[in-house]
Amino acid sequence: MKLTCLSKGDGFHYPPCHMLNLCGFRILIDCPLDLSAIKIFSPVISCVASEASKYPSDESLDAQNPIQKKHKLERQLTFADLVCEEPWYKTVKPLHLWDASFIDIVLISNPMGLLGLPFLTQNPGFSAKIYMTEATAKIGQLMMEDLVSMHAEFRCFHGPDNSSFPGWIKNLDREQVPALLKKVVFGESGDDLGSWMRLYSLDDIESCMKKVQAVKFAEEVCYNGTLIIKALSSGLDIGACNWLINGPNGSLSYVSDSIFVSHHARNFDFHGLKGTDVLIYSDFSSLQSAEVTENGCISPDPDNNYISTTSDNKDSLLNTEDSLEEMEKLEFICSCAAESADAGGSTLITITRIGIVLQLLELMSNSLESSSLKVPIFVISSVAEELLAYTNTIPEWLCEQQQEKLISGEPSFGHLKFIKDKKIHLFPAIHSPNLIYANRTSWQEPCIIFAPHWSLRLGPSVQLLQRWRGDPKSLLVLEDGISSGLGLLPFRPIAMKILQCSFLSGIRLQKLPTLLSVLQPKIVLVPDAVNQRINFAAMKTISILNYFENKTLRVPRIADNPSVEITTDLASKLSWRKLRQRENFGIARLKGGLLMEDGKHRLVSGLEQEESSGKARPLRHWGSVAPESLLDALLKIGIKGSLEQSIGETGSDDNSIIHIANPSSGLIEVSEMGTAIITDDENVASQVFQAIDGILDGI
Amino acid sequence: MAIDCLVLGAGQEIGKSCVVVTINGKRIMFDCGMHMGCDDHNRYPDFSLVSKSGDFDNAISCIIITHFHMDHVGALPYFTEVCGYNGPIYMSYPTKALSPLMLEDYRRVMVDRRGEDELFTTAHIANCMKKVIAIDLKQTIQVDEDLQIRAYYAGHVLGAVMVYAKVGDAAIVYTGDYNMTTDRHLGAAKIDRLQLDLLISESTYATTIRGSKYPREREFLQAVHKCVAGGGKALIPSFALGRAQELCMLLDDYWERMNIKVPIYFSSGLTIQANMYYKMLISWTSQNVKEKHNTHNPFDFKNVKDFDRSLIHAPGPCVLFATPGMLCAGFSLEVFKHWAPSPLNLVALPGYSVAGTVGHKLMSGKPTTVDLYNGTKVDVRCKIHQVAFSPHTDAKGIMDLTKFLSPKNVVLVHGEKPSMMILKDKITSELDIPCFVPANGETVSVASTTYIKANASDMFLKSCSSPNFKFSNSTQLRVTDQRTADGVLVIEKSKKAKIVHQDEVSEVLHEKNHVVSLAYCCPVKVKGESDNDADLIKQLSEKILKTVSGAQIHESENFVKKKLMSSSDSTAARDQHAPLLRPRHDGSSSSSSSSSSARPTALAVLLGRITGHRAPSMLVRETAARALEERRIDWGYSKPVVAADILWNAALVLASAVMLVGTVEERPNEPIRVWICGYGLQCLIHVVLVWSEYWRRNTTRRARDLESGDHEDYSVYDYEQDSDNSTTYRLSVIFLAIDVFFAIFCVVLACLVGIALCCCLPCIIALLYAVAGTEGVSEAELGVLPLYKFKAFHSNEKNITGPGLLHMSELIRGWCRAS
């Protein structure tokens, strides 16, 4: 087994990407898109000209001055530095080094990991089987369609451009371009250029989704009769999963970003992942958060006792601390939104994580209803209606609380009721006629708006932010990490309140040892960065290997020899031999055909050809023939012979020769290595052969 | 290792499905239903057969419920709460959501309306449902170490599943109820090709084969439409879930299309609530519905309203879905009591009705009065429509599924005994699969698959993974690939079996290989001096090596061999012997191949001489043509033809004779009598000739049949004879033909005249009329026509005609609209 980590990703929206070589099959796990790189492009803002000229005018004058060039490099980034072109999208760079036609399987573990897949399936040689859960396929498809529809705005603005080379890159290669921008475009080592791609079209998405084989949680799918692949819920989001792959050479589990107790999606499935041979731990989410909080090495929780039984451990993993914390965060957002609405300001929520959005919608409408504030909630997205309708028809993919609702006959999420009561309004776009013109009563400020995209470059959030940025009463709710760097650049100066929230998007590092002691894998592959931060000394029974980005790690096979199953009717047909020298051995030559079925080698009775050609097969013998005993055996069947010891030239005197005189002449050479029967009488030869066969063990 | 299948319910009957299967020691109960037609203790399966002591937790590993119908889930609260089973229960999500509704509904019907003792309480149902674990389709669930279950889509009702259970290597499928065709709202049953030891299938329609559903749907819609159009009320007694939704989708759709405003009611809030579930469980419906639901959820019925008890006697037409189905009790029966006496009303009975219910009585005949539950009698004057929408598969579906899965054994349950027996025979004879039809309480035992497991060495697997073709051409070219035969299974006492490659065996046994080789010793006679023996042997061996592949030559043993052979074979003193290690069959095969290649050429020459230079295909064609000719002539002389000919001519002769005798007195001007005489004579001669020819032919044929050999000369002679006689023969045939032709001609002429007189005239008139009349005037034309006329009347003849004509134009317009 070989593992190559192609990219370690970055947070929830950019999951890691791996290439795995298992049983000779090449498996790609996840195919994400680095959407944070889109920040280098400038958004489509209706009043760009006036804004740009008003604010950074003096600085742009400076830019003309060649003397101050040196100084310019250290200057603050401005809006004008952003690339004002139709955006391109950054894919996983090392993936382009692999031939797409040699990939056998693609596993997509969450909707974010699907976004880059159309780039791969565009390749004419691509023929891999793509597995993902049904919910991932549906939500991922909607997200891709949303992305394309939001991108269409750019296309309208910049006009059609079909050149295969991005012209804007030339402009970026100049000296006065800020280093931050360069780093995003060209990467650390300056070779990321090839990973920029023009966005796919709706047709590409459709043809990509046609190749997908959707699975359910815990459904066993068999690839090529060899690998049995199973998706197990990871708890991160609706439809997000970990993978369990069973092959003839042992089992492998892939743990992606996971949340043990989730408030909307199905909880982390411990049961299925237990006791695998190899576990690939690919949760990088802890690294980002750990960097902020602690710099040292995190030692496992002191109160965690490793000797305790696994059930205790499981309980400690399943404690609801984290999830309560998450709920508190959501409630805090709600209260902030209510506060600003009270003060007459609007709230723009750019979070696009479906689970979070669904919970926020429900919480927010509940809290608004109780507080008697008359603030409408808008959800503006081209796929909002379909997505929200879809989430109410998938009780199988949700957590137990939501399933309870199904049993009692309520819809899974509360938003359905609020949409009916006209508390939540869904609009496909900001320029929808219903929103602005036809029904003026629906638009009302202050309001609470859910609008994509979290990168603040695409979609309705751009216009809304532009509208409210000067309003100190309004609130902007962002995802973690947007406000730093380029994120808010086009909108500066901002008077709005900004709430930046980071949600749990993976396993906390402290919990990793406990998780491993529950799952009990034989080998664990962890990213080197994780290994540096955590002390695995306590895990004695588990061998831990590190993997690095863009390096191939070879994992030795630890399972026993693969087992072969033989059908009983075939086994009864085998002709058994008891060995003469060794009493407790029984041997038999196999028959039938070897198949690979359900990940198991199986020997079944095949075409019956043995009768005709079975006799022609050369026999194998082992042991040694004592000339005396052979003489005795020959006498019994009526062949007389005489023994002659010959001394070989090499000095080994084991060569003995038996002359046969009766019934016809011949001789038998007997040595340690073999026996030669030399005669011109076939009958005699066969008799002698049988006699030898009677002395030796053979098959 | 065996599988025991104990049938607790639905054995040779329909109702209270319950099958307990023991696979390699694990016991699984499939379904736990109650009988709807029984009121006594027989209503529940006999659970004491599972465990005498009542310790069901240890006796049964798990219960799996396939769908929410009462005859599949009805006894579950009783079993868990009263009998005390606490183990796991598995159901699909919809079943888990909907069965409490069904159970509660049934309980209410039983207790509130019939006044029976409570079998289980609401609390029982709630407690019981808490123990249920919901499963998704195709989700593989490990119940315990060994037992694995998986659900497949069955399409019978929302959430119906087929269950696959596997313990070790033995696997079975219990189908529950299933439907192999796509429904208006549900898909067809779907299952993987599995290796099964036992298939337990329902067989409700074991002998019926049904056609398309669309005519039946149309019939139903028409019946309902006719009823409401006539101001009647349509009652559709059905269970709250399943059929009701399907029919409602159908009606709602129809109402929309036809723009009918008659209200459709659901009798209880239960069905409305059920619709809520249907809306959420879209993923369990058919592909068609799933695709549509993004824009409009098909279970959002537009015309459906809640029913109120007061509406029973309200005037005006309506359609009512009332629970329960089968008219066995409750509200539907009450409504039936009120509505049945009116001939305007309609009762549409969907699906199957269990014997003993009112529904069954209505279906089985057309009764005028029906006994209700407590002695009340009701006159039945309303129309009764039977909707044959059964969500069960038909006989073909059962056969298809069985064929597809090809299990080792089949058990049929959930059907009526006579038809099950027929199906059993069909499965046994057509598919060659042993089939069982156990009655309630009986156990069927079948053997289960087990695999012997062995660890395989890498060398063996590697050698198996690459093709290893062997070619042999003993009689014909054979390609064999026996990779596995390189493998050797080694079993050491008290150790796991191992599979190794044959080259590895000695290693495993810690022994050395011992090669046993055979050498063929053939004398080579050489005349020459003994000095250059060595050279000779060298030359010889080189030659042999060139011609025989794979040969090995022991050269160094020259001396030994020479000595040996000279002692044994003293006469050939000068012979040199080169012992060759070579495959023995080599020589023989080459010789045989040479001889076989020589033989065909000799055969070919021989064949060529016999046939001369005529191509064989020509010969064949000639013989075929001759055979055809012969057969045709034979037909001409077949007995009926000859008899008819003779009879006809004899009749003519007779007629002419009678005419001659009868008209003796007549003195015609022409010599017509001579002519008649001549004609009669000619007929007579013809008869004689034909008879003689027929007789001769018969005798020769008999003679020819007796002769065994097919003589060339004879056939030529025969042929000539034929051509000789054929003139007379032809003559007679021509005569005959003329006669027959005239007779037929006369008859036909007479007939034609008659027909022309009788029918052709009106026919032609009608035809002309039709041609002259409107032949497909387009709608647009019609639309213009009356308008034009109307105006014309107005302008020209307004004063003269007036209202009469106006009325007419109205009529025309009305007719136009209708068309």
From TrEMBL, chain A:
The keyword Nucleus applies. One of its GO terms (cellular component) is cytoplasm. Keywords: Cytoplasm, Nucleus. It is found in: Cytoplasm; Nucleus. Its main location: cytoplasm. The keyword Cytoplasm applies. It comes from the Eukaryota. Residues 357-482 form the Beta-Casp domain. Belongs to the metallo-beta-lactamase superfamily. RNA-metabolizing metallo-beta-lactamase-like family. INTS9 subfamily. This is Beta-Casp domain-containing protein.
TrEMBL record, chain B:
One of its GO terms (molecular function) is RNA endonuclease activity. It is found in: Nucleus. Belongs to the metallo-beta-lactamase superfamily. RNA-metabolizing metallo-beta-lactamase-like family. INTS11 subfamily. GO terms for biological process: polar nucleus fusion; snRNA processing. Residues 564-599 are annotated as: Disordered. The lineage of its organism: Eukaryota, Viridiplantae, Streptophyta, Embryophyta, Tracheophyta. InterPro entries: Beta_Casp, INTS11-like_MBL-fold, MBL, Metallo-B-lactamas, RibonucZ/Hydroxyglut_hydro, RMMBL. It comes from Arabidopsis lyrata subsp. lyrata. Keywords: Hydrolase, Membrane, Nucleus, Transmembrane, Transmembrane helix. GO terms for cellular component: nucleus. It comes from the Eukaryota. Residues 588-597 have a biased composition (Low complexity). The chain crosses the membrane at residues 641-660, 672-692, 733-757. Pfam families: Beta-Casp, Lactamase_B_6, RMMBL. CDD domains: INTS11-like_MBL-fold (cd16291). This is Cleavage and polyadenylation specificity factor subunit 3-II. Residues 572-587 have a biased composition (Basic and acidic residues).
